[in-house]
């Protein structure tokens, strides 16, 4: 089968990205891969949907660095493909990355993803589900018991009042954002630079304030869910602990977070089970949960990363499991001749 990976840009892809490892797993299993970016869709007057895809010529790469060198070099080929030539469209972009510089690109994946699904292409995660998750308001739809206490506002007075009600401190971050950008820990409503923090964090719109969880000092646990259930092979879970650098509240890998092995407890599995109904309803094929104590800080449904770190820690590359799951879905789709809705098929 041919899998198209939708990303922000080919140039921005890196060897340690989970998308890179997924592409390598697809190639290793005999599939074709191509990369698509926000400017690569074409809807013609005859209603045909095409993509200008970056494909590979010659030998199939086997290492992350080799793959990306090929995609960005002379081995790359730009081909115009009808979407009927693609079996899977894997949406792996980060909309918040484009929000400031290319606002037109933010909704391209979900909008054209819907068109692709209507034409019989398996699209994961489901574009209708992803359209509900364009910002952290989506997280408020999960059970209250597994969420930190939160306030969403653009009022600094409301935020001061929230901080006053939580003497243990609060985390302040943009409602639309990812990757640990503009995330701050506020210890008191009288913090000297609160006004400046507010201006920086609210530059993109609304803010979300959450009560600080002391266990976060040891980092969070990133747990992958596949088809709504914890991804696991032979007793090993697709999970790792992200430990923040000293003095930093963020545990994201690209801001100096350190990966460590994590123990997935029955309590963590129970948290995942409580999220499962909503994730299934929304067609969320691959999700990364960030868990601290008995709370989920975030459900990453666009670009959950960490598979390379898990492979290094446990010697298990879960990219193959994800490819096998996609193969099974494509077989089901062919068997039922497209009668099963994409949102249902995405999590079967």
TrEMBL record:
- GO cellular component terms, semicolon-separated: cytoplasm
Q: Report keywords, A-Z.
A: ATP-binding, Glutathione biosynthesis, Ligase, Magnesium, Manganese, Metal-binding, Nucleotide-binding
Q: What InterPro entries does this protein map onto? A: ATP-grasp (IPR011761), ATP_grasp_subdomain_1 (IPR013815), Cyt_B5_heme-BS (IPR018506), Glut_synth_pro (IPR006284), GSHS_ATP-bd (IPR004218), GSHS_N (IPR004215), PreATP-grasp_dom_sf (IPR016185)
Where does this protein act, in terms of pathway? Sulfur metabolism; glutathione biosynthesis; glutathione from L-cysteine and L-glutamate: step 2/2
**Which cofactor does the UniProt annotation name?**
Mn(2+); Mg(2+)
Catalytic reactions on record = gamma-L-glutamyl-L-cysteine + glycine + ATP = glutathione + ADP + phosphate + H(+)
Protein family: Belongs to the prokaryotic GSH synthase family.
Q: What is this protein called?
A: Glutathione synthetase
Species of origin reads Rhizobium meliloti
């Amino acid at each position: 089968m041919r899998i198209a990976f939708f990303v922000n840009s080919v140039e921005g892809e890196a060897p340690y990205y989970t998308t890179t490892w997924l592409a390598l797993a697809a190639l290793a299993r005999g599939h074709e891969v191509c990369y698509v970016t926000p400017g690569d869709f074409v809807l013609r007057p005859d209603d045909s949907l095409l993509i200008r895809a970056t494909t590979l010529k010659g030998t199939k790469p086997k290492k992350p660095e080799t793959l990306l060198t090929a995609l960005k070099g002379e081995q790359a080929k730009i081909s115009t493909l009808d979407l009927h030539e693609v079996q899977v469209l894997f949406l792996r972009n980060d909309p918040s990355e484009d929000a400031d510089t290319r606002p037109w690109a933010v909704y391209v994946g979900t909008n054209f993803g819907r068109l692709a699904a209507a034409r019989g292409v398996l699209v994961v995660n489901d574009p209708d589900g992803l359209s509900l998750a364009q910002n952290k308001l989506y997280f408020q739809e999960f059970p209250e018991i597994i969420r930190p206490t939160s306030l969403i506002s653009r009022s600094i007075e409301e935020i001061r009042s929230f901080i006053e009600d939580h003497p243990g401190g609060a985390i302040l971050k943009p409602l639309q954002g990812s990757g640990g950008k503009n995330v701050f820990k506020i210890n008191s409503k009288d913090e000297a630079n609160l006004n400046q923090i507010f201006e920086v964090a609210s530059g993109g719109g609304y803010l979300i304030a959450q009560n600080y969880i002391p266990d976060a000092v040891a980092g969070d646990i990133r747990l992958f869910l596949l088809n709504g259930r914890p991804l696991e092979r032979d007793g090993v879970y697709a999970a790792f602990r992200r430990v923040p650098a000293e003095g930093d509240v963020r545990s994201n890998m690209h801001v100096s977070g350190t990966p460590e092995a994590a123990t997935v407890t029955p309590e963590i599995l129970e948290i995942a089970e409580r999220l499962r109904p909503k994730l299934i309803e929304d067609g969320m094929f691959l999700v990364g949960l960030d868990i601290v104590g008995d709370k989920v800080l975030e459900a990453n449904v666009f670009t959950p990363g960490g598979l390379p770190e898990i492979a290094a820690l446990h010697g298990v590359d879960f990219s193959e499991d994800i490819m096998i799951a996609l193969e099974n879905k494509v077989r089901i789709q062919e068997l039922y001749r497209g009668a099963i809705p994409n949102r249902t098929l995405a999590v079967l």
